[in-house]
Design brief:
This protein is an alpha/beta fold and 573 residues long. It contains 22 helices and 18 strands. Keywords: ATP-binding, DNA-binding, Nucleotide-binding, Transcription, Transcription regulation.
C-alpha cells in the first residue's frame, strides 16, 4: 500500500493539469483493481476494463477523462471514446456518501458502508432506464465500482471503474476487498483533480448554431459533444437568456438525430391546465375547444429531439405524465380511449432554477429530478463570458444588417464594444440582443442617406443602454456594479489614469438625487444623517459632498455637475 500511495503522490505533485493528474490516478487505481482480481477466485475469468474521472461540482459536469487498461494517456471528453455517465451511479454515491458496487446484469447497488443494504430491482433495476443498463453491457461492463470524489467543499464528482466478469453475476466481486485502498487513492487525488486547470483546448469551429465560443464555453464543449452523441437526457441549467435553447439545438445537430425534428416547448408560455395537452396532444372532444385532433410536441418531435425549457414551471400533474413518458417511452393523448403511443424522442431539459431545492420544497418530484438529471451541464451567464460580449455583438449587428441590406456592411466602433463589455448583463444574450438592436436602429437613423460602412458608435450604445432602465430601476448591488464597471471603463478608454479619489463623488451624487426627490432636510434624514440636521452641520457637509461631485464631472470633461445649482445655493448661504 505504501508503494501505491507514494507513487501516486509523486505523480500528482508533478502534474500541471487535470488530464495528467487523472491519468496518474486512474493508472494506479486500475493496477490495484487488477491485482485484486488476480488474487481472487475470479483470476483468469475477469478483466478490468477502464476507469473514468467524472468531475461534476455543483451538480453539473465540468470535465471527463477516461483511461483504458494498458493506455498511457487519458482520452478527453469529445475525442471519440464511448464515454458513459450513469445517473444511477451518481445518485447512489450521493445518497450513501460512500463507494458503491453495481452488478449490472441483475441491477443491484451495494454500498460499501458496513451493514448497508443491497438496493435495486432485478431486471431493470436500480437503473434509471433500460438504456442505461444496456449501454453498460454494450461496453462489456458487468461490474462497476463508483467512488465519491470528496473535498472539504463537498462531493465534487466520482471515479468509476469497470470490469467484465460474467462468472461473478449475482456474486460479490472484488470491489469491496480493494475498496479501502481505492477510496484512499481517490481521496488523495481529489484536491489535484478539482483544482488543476484543464489543458488548453483548441479553438472550436463555430457554426450557425453556436456562432460565438469564448474561453468558458470552449472548455464546456468537449463534454457537450460527448453528451450529444448519447440518447440520455441532458439537463442544461443557467440563467434566463443565457442561450440554453441555442445550446440544445447545437447538441441536436451533433447527435445521431440530426436532420430529424427539433421541437421546443417553453413552459413559461403555457398555462398549467394546458401543459398536458401541449405535451401529449389531444383527440377531438377531449375538452372544451378541442374541435379537432391535434398532435402534441412529443409527437411532433418523433425521431428527433424535444427541448423542454423552464421545467420547474411544470405542474405536479404534468410532472407525473412526463415521468411516465421518460420511464416507459410511451404516452396517451388526452381523450385517447385505450392504448398508448410510443415515443422515439431524445429529451433536453432546460431550467434556471435549482431543481434540487425545488425537490426539497415539494414543488418538483424527486423521481422526476433523477430522471432528468442524467447528463447535467451548467450554462455560464454572459457576465462570466465577458470575452464573448464583443463577439456576440458583432455577430448580432452583422446578422441584422445582412437581413436589411444584404450588400452593406456594419460594425461597432472599438469604444462601443468596450462600453458593452464593461456593462452588466442580467438579461444575458437576450438583453444584449435588445441593446444591439436598439443601438443599430439609432445608428441607421443617423446614417440615413449616407454611404460607406454603418458604424455603431459609443453614443449609440450608451443611448440604447439608457433606454434599458426600467421605471423601478435595477437592484442596488447590480447598479453599484454597473457604476463601478463604468468607472473602470472610462479609465480604460482615456488611456491614462482616472484617480480613484474621484469615486468619492458618488456620495454627493446620492445625496444630490435624494435632495431633488424629497428636499434637503428630509434627504439627510433618509440617508441616516439626521444628527447633522439637528446640529445644523448639514450645510457644511452638503457643500463638501457636492464639491466632490463637481470635481468628478470636471475630471470626466463635463462642463458642470447636475447639482451645480445646489452648490451655488450653499455658497450663497
Amino acid at each position: 500500500m505504501q508503494d501505491e500511495l507514494a507513487q501516486l503522490m509523486a505523480a500528482l505533485r508533478d502534474s500541471r493539469d487535470f488530464e495528467t493528474a487523472a491519468a496518474a490516478t486512474l493508472r494506479r487505481m486500475l493496477a490495484v483493481a487488477d491485482a485484486a482480481v488476480a488474487s481472487s477466485r475470479y483470476a483468469g475469468r475477469a478483466r478490468v476494463l477502464r476507469g473514468i474521472v467524472h468531475l461534476r461540482p455543483g451538480e453539473a459536469y465540468r470535465r471527463l477523462a477516461a483511461l483504458d487498461v494498458g493506455a498511457r494517456e487519458v482520452t478527453d471528453a469529445g475525442v471519440g471514446t464511448p464515454f458513459f455517465t450513469s445517473a444511477t451511479a451518481w445518485r447512489a454515491v450521493v445518497e450513501h456518501r460512500c463507494a458503491v458496487s453495481i452488478d449490472v446484469n441483475i441491477g443491484t447497488v451495494q454500498p460499501h458502508a458496513p451493514d448497508a443494504p443491497v438496493t435495486g430491482d432485478p431486471g431493470l433495476a436500480g437503473f434509471h432506464s433500460n438504456e442505461s443498463k444496456q449501454r453498460f453491457l454494450g461496453r462489456h461492463a458487468t461490474h462497476v465500482c463508483v467512488l465519491p470524489l470528496r473535498t472539504p467543499a463537498g462531493m465534487e464528482g466520482m471515479i468509476s471503474l469497470e470490469a467484465d466478469c460474467l462468472a461473478a453475476m449475482g456474486q460479490e466481486f472484488v470491489w469491496r476487498d480493494a475498496g479501502d485502498l481505492l477510496q484512499l487513492l481517490t481521496d488523495i487525488a481529489a484536491p489535484y483533480l478539482t483544482a488543476l486547470p484543464q489543458r488548453p483546448v483548441a479553438t472550436p469551429e463555430v457554426d450557425e448554431f453556436l456562432p460565438v465560443v469564448g474561453r468558458s464555453m470552449a472548455e464546456l464543449l468537449p463534454i457537450l459533444r460527448t453528451f450529444a452523441l448519447q440518447d440520455e437526457t441532458i439537463l442544461v441549467s443557467g440563467a434566463t437568456g443565457a442561450g440554453k435553447s441555442r445550446l440544445a439545438r447545437w447538441c441536436h445537430e451533433r447527435s445521431g438525430r440530426r436532420g430529424k425534428p427539433f421541437e421546443t416547448l417553453d413552459l413559461v408560455t403555457v398555462p398549467e391546465d394546458l401543459q398536458m395537452a401541449e405535451l401529449f396532444g389531444w383527440k377531438k372532444g377531449a375538452f372544451t375547444g378541442a374541435v379537432r385532433d391535434a398532435p402534441g410536441v412529443v409527437a411532433r418531435s418523433d425521431g428527433g429531439t424535444l427541448f423542454i425549457d423552464e421545467i420547474d414551471k411544470l405542474s405536479l400533474k404534468a410532472q407525473a405524465g412526463l415521468l411516465h413518458l421518460l420511464e416507459s417511452r410511451s404516452y396517451r393523448p388526452l381523450g385517447e380511449g385505450t392504448g398508448e403511443k410510443l415515443a422515439d424522442v431524445r429529451f433536453i431539459i432546460g431550467t434556471n432554477a435549482d431543481l434540487h431545492a425545488q425537490v426539497r420544497a415539494g414543488r418538483f418530484r424527486e423521481d422526476l429530478y433523477y430522471r432528468v438529471n442524467v447528463l447535467p451541464v451548467r450554462m455560464p451567464p454572459l457576465q462570466d463570458r465577458q470575452d464573448e460580449i464583443p463577439l456576440w455583438a458583432r455577430y448580432m449587428v452583422n446578422r441584422r444588417h445582412r437581413e436589411r441590406l444584404p450588400d452593406g456592411s456594419a460594425r461597432l466602433a472599438p469604444e462601443a464594444e468596450l462600453l458593452l463589455t464593461t456593462s452588466t448583463w442580467p438579461g444575458n444574450l437576450r438583453q444584449l440582443d435588445n441593446i444591439v438592436r436598439r443601438a443599430y436602429t439609432l445608428a441607421m437613423v443617423e446614417h440615413a442617406g449616407g454611404t460607406g460602412d454603418l458604424v455603431l458608435q459609443e453614443k449609440h450604445v450608451a443611448r440604447a443602454l439608457d433606454y434599458e432602465q426600467s421605471p423601478g430601476g435595477r437592484p442596488l448591488p447590480e447598479a453599484l456594479r454597473a457604476a463601478a464597471q463604468a468607472f473602470v471603463g472610462e479609465a480604460r478608454r482615456r488611456g491614462g489614469p482616472l484617480d480613484l479619489d474621484y469615486a468619492d463623488g458618488f456620495r454627493g451624487l446620492v445625496l444630490g438625487l435624494a435632495i431633488r426627490q424629497v428636499g434637503r432636510d428630509e434627504a439627510f434624514r433618509l440617508l441616516g444623517r439626521e444628527s447633522l440636521v439637528k446640529n445644523r452641520n448639514h450645510h457644511k457637509a452638503l457643500k463638501r459632498e457636492l464639491e466632490k461631485v463637481d470635481v468628478l464631472y470636471k475630471a470626466l470633461g463635463e462642463e458642470g455637475s447636475p447639482f451645480s445649482d445646489l452648490l451655488e445655493n450653499e455658497d450663497a448661504d
